[in-house]
TrEMBL record:
Transmembrane segments: none
Listed SUPFAM superfamilies: DNA breaking-rejoining enzymes
Organism: Candidatus Vagococcus giribetii
Domain Tyr recombinase: 1-118
UniProt-recorded name of the protein: Tyrosine-type recombinase/integrase
InterPro entries associated with the record: DNA_brk_join_enz (IPR011010), Integrase-like_cat_sf (IPR013762), Integrase_catalytic (IPR002104), Tyrosine_recombinase_XerCD (IPR050090)
Keywords for this protein: DNA recombination
Length: 127
């Protein structure tokens, strides 16, 4: 998956921090297959861990509740609003079939279709 330069910069900085922290516990993170986020034993995180972090941040900063999966949905919606095609979104989300993407995100694609019609109307000076 392609990532923008800003995201890559954040991940590179995290990798430096991760290396330093892991060394304190006797782990080398120089392996090319190193996980990005790990538990204290440098292994896979429990699937519930990101949710716990999210809840803690929401409570600490009095933020609206959203699930980890909700961020995936938001990412998809923003991709459509940015002009990504259904095929681009399908690939980004890892859906094997474009129908899956369409079925889950129909409400977003309807909005995009309406916006596309308005763009065309504006272009030919009807509106």
């Amino acid at each position: 998956m392609a990532l923008d330069d800003g995201t890559l910069l954040v991940l590179r900085e995290w990798r430096k921090t991760q290396r330093a922290e892991a060394l304190k516990f006797g782990f080398s993170t120089m392996n090319k297959n190193q996980l990005i986020f790990t538990n204290i034993d440098n292994k896979f995180l429990s699937p519930a861990k990101p949710r716990k972090w999210l809840i803690a941040a929401q409570e600490k900063y009095d933020l609206k509740s959203i699930t980890v999966h909700g961020f995936r949905h938001t990412h998809c919606s923003l991709l459509f609003e940015a002009g990504a095609t259904i095929q681009e979104v399908q690939e980004r989300l890892g859906h094997t079939d474009v129908k899956t993407t369409m079925n889950i995100y129909t409400h977003v694609t309807k909005k995009t279709k309406k916006e596309t019609a308005l763009k065309f109307a504006n272009y030919i000076n009807i509106v």
